[in-house]
Write a structure and sequence with these properties.
The complex is a heterodimer. Chain A contains 14 helices and 23 strands. By secondary structure, chain A is an alpha+beta fold. Among the domains of chain A are: 168 residues, no CATH class; 91 residues, Rossmann fold (3-Layer(aba) Sandwich), CATH 3.40.50; 63 residues, Dna Ligase, domain 1 (2-Layer Sandwich). Chain B is an alpha+beta fold. Chain B starts with a strand and ends with a helix. Classes of the chains: A alpha+beta, B alpha+beta. Chains A and B meet through helix 5 and strand 8 of A and strand 1, helix 1 and strand 15 of B.
């Protein structure tokens, strides 16, 4: 165990099953494969049996095959903060993460409930603002947020679905319950890794895969296409395009991948133009009308006429065409107001307010530094808390208290004091661990779970997810922008 | 009383550009004492105009020009009828402060209490307020706003060229000079800090001579002032550039949180070219003949430029002045 690692990471019972698990130390975090007493959980039994028959060299060989396959397909991710600034392969782990049918049923129910409430919330804050008048959410949190798009006021969106593609981050706490860590309602990425991981991992364990009854996810692109089509006011001959910021975007691979899988065009802003309030793409045979845009560009950059005028990525006039109903955009603009890390704390209340239901999936306890009492609690307990900047995503601008040095904590405390409204804090959650093949041995690594929810005319969740894994021992940061890897996720049929 | 209004905007490009896309907020509003009697926009090159009403009730026109062009000219003409402005009481009672509550304010008012891009409290503004003894008044809110209107008028010199359309208020605060846009932003930021919803008004002023000097408006008769919300009186207009209440010579075109919400024109184009903007505005009582020679013509940049651009701009400016005088 590393110096400075979490106290509860330090091994209590140390089952040392033979062979591959020689280094597998179980600690306080929930482990996906092993129960507390060291026995293999039932839904992992088939995989465990298979692993027991494979020598480490063979595992290593298969891992290599997976990585090579990713390299050949060009599945990469750009890491912005890296001085070498570069495309990396997202390391995929050989060992799948397995979710039982019962667990999945609950996740599915919880996510549908949550996205339902969030869509109602968006319709409300861009409409009557009942939620503000009733004092459920403080007004200043909405009107003071840079993600609130006043341009969206009084505009209606098809089926009331503002968030057509959502990628929610779930984690499993020490008690083994799934809780929601973050809602990603703007331009969530990662679904291509979900699909690519499946492609390579099922080939690494073909027999086990068949025997376990893993639910299919390959139809995701088709479901996405159906969702996008359902946004058009007519349903025949809908012309769709994926709008990417371009090849330097960290998720460009995914944009190209999804466009190819759906059989629609991949375009950059400069490929589109607006004429007489209608959006066209330039083709070799002239202009072709576009009806629905799956945009992977942030609000700020999507239309320099309305939003950031220095944006060269967007399409001037796009928003007015959208306002007029001449083009549909998924996700709708302004969804960022609902996945703000401060608003997150209010989501359980929103579920009760709009649906009169109790949340199926809980939140992580969250302290809003904007509230004085919470602020002093946060400042006094920085060593145990995770602090996040409200407007940031992708693991930027955050402090993991237990892993930070005193100097880092002091520096962060200053930032919080200077701008408390911009920060929230949560207790360090011991994300669950899953067996991960690292440097030739199987070790526990922390994982999260990002399922993808599609909402157009209907709400659909493909039974799968991106499982992100923190490859550094003891690390709790799974973001791919911070050097995390990913795993195939097997949702069992029953 | 009727006013006729003619607002010409001309962009000239140093090389042919294409795919111009523009939004216009120049149609006078029709509400309160102000009624819009007629309005039309023509563009050259000709374009199909589209319009919508934004969430603040402003009429917005937009259009695009695909083919190559070296000049884009927009002419807006309006006739506005102005009824007498109701006479305000001298003061409001001290209870006015307690009326800033959810029963009297709507979401639009609450939104206008939040800082916005150009109208926000900053250290230089706080220092300015301390220096001038500007404090949240305990008593009469109306008198306090009038006093604030005068304080800003007294504290700043009106000077064109110190700030430009995208300048933050800190620039005017540091120089103690600026134009109507700067003064309006400063007054809005202070009013909001006091808890009074405040908004920016973009419009036109039919200016008068006063004590020998002409009233100050935008360089070209486009003007900006503010409106503050008093629950017992509604929206009241203050013109800190001239130390007056907005009256029947203030023609309102658009309201917003600050300038960023309501520029008269906003646009983009494709092509490698410098763009130069010339504006000419005339606001006249319709009884009087429109005297074209009184149009003020100015040039102002669309985006921040380098010093060499500025030199180029001066040249453009001079050429343009000459050309216009020959018309």
């Amino acid at each position: 165990m590393q110096q400075g690692a979490l106290a509860d990471d330090q091994a209590t019972p140390m089952p040392r099953p033979d062979g591959a698990y020689a280094n597998y130390a179980l600690g306080a975090p929930y482990d996906e494969m092993f129960a507390r007493d060291g026995t293999v959980r039932e839904h992992y039994a088939a995989l465990a049996e298979r692993l027991a028959t494979l020598p480490p060299e063979e595992l290593y060989r298969r891992q290599q095959a997976c990585e090579l396959s990713f390299l050949h397909q060009g599945i990469t991710f750009t890491v912005y903060s890296d001085a070498q600034a570069t495309e990396r392969i997202i390391p995929t782990d050989l060992l799948p993460r397995i979710v039982t049918a019962a667990e999945w049923a609950r996740i599915e129910r919880g996510l549908k409930q949550r996205i339902g409430a969030l869509n109602l919330f968006l319709r409300d804050v861009y409409g009557d603002a009942r939620v503000l008048r009733d004092g459920i959410v403080p007004r200043s949190m909405i009107y003071g947020s840079r993600h609130y798009r006043r341009e969206m006021r009084e505009l209606s969106v098809p089926h009331g679905a503002y968030v057509n593609v959502c990628g929610s981050d779930l984690v499993r706490n020490e008690a083994g319950d799934f809780v929601v860590l973050e809602d990603n309602l703007r331009v969530p990425s990662g679904v291509s890794y979900m699909l690519a991981n499946r492609d390579v991992v099922r080939r690494a364990f073909p027999a086990v895969f068949r025997r376990m009854g893993v639910r299919a996810i390959e139809h995701y692109p088709r479901e996405l296409l159906t969702t996008l089509r359902s946004l058009a006011p007519f349903h025949e001959d809908v012309s769709i395009a994926v709008l990417t910021p371009g090849v330097f975007n960290s998720a460009y691979f995914e944009h190209a991948f999804l466009a190819r899988q759906m059989g629609v065009e991949l375009v950059e802003g400069r490929d589109l133009l607006v004429n007489d309030n209608v959006v066209y793409t330039r083709t070799t045979s002239g202009l072709k009308r576009i009806d629905v845009i799956y945009r992977r560009i942030d609000d700020d950059f999507i239309d320099p006429l309305i939003f950031r005028e220095d944006s060269s990525l967007g399409v001037p006039g796009l928003f007015n065409a959208y306002r007029a109903g001449n083009v549909m955009i998924a996700n709708a603009l302004g969804t960022g107001i609902a996945d703000d890390k401060a608003l997150y704390a209010y989501v359980p209340r929103l579920i009760r307010y709009y649906l009169a239901e109790e949340p199926v999936l809980n939140n992580v306890e969250t302290f809003l530094c904007r509230e004085e009492k919470s602020l002093s609690h946060v400042l006094a307990n920085l060593d145990t808390l995770v602090v996040k900047a409200v407007g940031e995503s992708g693991g930027y601008g955050m402090l993991v208290g237990p892993h930070a040095s005193r100097a880092e904590r002091d520096e962060f405390a200053q930032k919080i004091r200077a701008d408390p409204e911009n920060y929230i804090a949560q207790p360090t959650i011991q994300l669950s661990t899953a067996p991960t093949f690292v440097d030739g041995v199987v070790e526990p690594r922390h994982v999260d779970l990002r399922p993808f929810i599609l909402q157009g005319e209907e709400t659909v969740i493909v039974p799968g997810a991106l499982t992100r894994v923190a490859l550094k021992r003891g690390s709790l940061v799974v973001n791919s922008s911070q050097g995390g890897g990913s795993k195939d996720t097997w949702v069992l049929a029953g | 009383m009727f006013y006729s209004l003619r607002h010409i905007t001309r962009f000239r490009y140093s090389a042919p550009v294409h795919e111009s896309v523009m939004e216009l907020r120049m149609q006078p509003r029709s509400e309160g004492p102000q009624t819009l009697r007629s309005f039309q926009i023509t563009t050259n090159p000709r374009a199909q105009l589209y319009a919508y009403t934004d969430y603040l009730g402003n009429a917005v026109y937009h259009f695009n020009v695909l083919r190559a062009h070296e000049e884009l000219r927009i002419e807006a003409q309006a006739v506005v009828e102005m009824a007498a402005i109701p006479v305000l009481p001298e003061t409001v009672d001290a209870l006015e402060w307690s009326r800033y509550n959810p029963y009297n304010l709507s979401d639009i008012h609450f939104d206008l209490l939040e800082p916005s891009k150009f109208a926000r409290l900053s250290r230089p503004l706080a220092e300015f307020m301390a220096q001038r003894g500007i404090e949240k008044p305990a008593g009469d809110a109306l008198s306090a706003l009038k006093a604030l209107n005068r304080t800003i008028y007294d504290a700043f010199d009106y000077q064109i060229g110190v700030t430009e359309v995208h300048s933050p208020i800190e620039q005017a605060l540091a120089a103690r000079r600026g134009v109507c846009q700067d003064f309006a932003h400063i007054m809005i930021a202070v009013a909001r800090a006091w808890g009074i919803p405040a908004r920016y008004v973009s419009g036109y002023l039919n200016s008068r001579r006063r004590a020998g000097a002409r009233e100050r408006s935008g360089e070209d008769a486009t003007h900006a002032w503010i409106e503050a919300y008093l629950p017992s009186l509604g929206w009241l207009g203050f013109d800190p550039t001239n130390d007056i209440l907005a009256g029947d010579r203030h023609i309102r075109a658009a309201v917003g949180r600050d300038y960023a919400d309501v520029p008269p024109t906003r646009g983009t184009f494709k092509g490698l070219a410098e763009s130069e903007l010339a504006i000419s505005v005339a606001v006249e009582p319709t009884q009087a003949p429109v005297r074209h020679e009184e149009f003020l013509r100015i040039a102002r940049p669309m985006k921040p430029r380098t010093p060499s651009d500025l030199a180029l701009d001066r040249l453009h400016h001079q050429q343009q002045q000459q050309q216009q005088q020959q018309q």
